[in-house]
Fold this sequence. Notes:
One of its GO terms (molecular function) is cysteine-type endopeptidase inhibitor activity. This protein is an alpha+beta fold and about 100 residues long. The chain is about 15% helix and about 35% strand.
Amino acid sequence: MASTTVIMFPGMLSSQKDANAAAQQICDKLKFQAEQQAGRKFGIFTAKFYKTHTMGIGIVFIKVHVGGGQYAHLRIYQKQPGDPNPELKGIQYPKTLDDHIVIF
């Protein structure tokens, strides 16, 4: 089980949106790092939903389907939208489809 450090950010998250091609691109770039942090390999790694931080600080949270009924929540930092080098700052795993994306 991956450990999680809770970081407090002022503000809130946007409403949940269906993942798009940009969210999947970010996930594709960060899959290996997510596997390392979770301590396991993921057969699939499909972005399903995402939320952004409302304070405009470059934080994105993505719910990723990792196989079966399991999901992971990723906390990602981007210097700007479309940043070619997103950074994985945290992962919550395991999660379910019903688990809400929250700030962590």
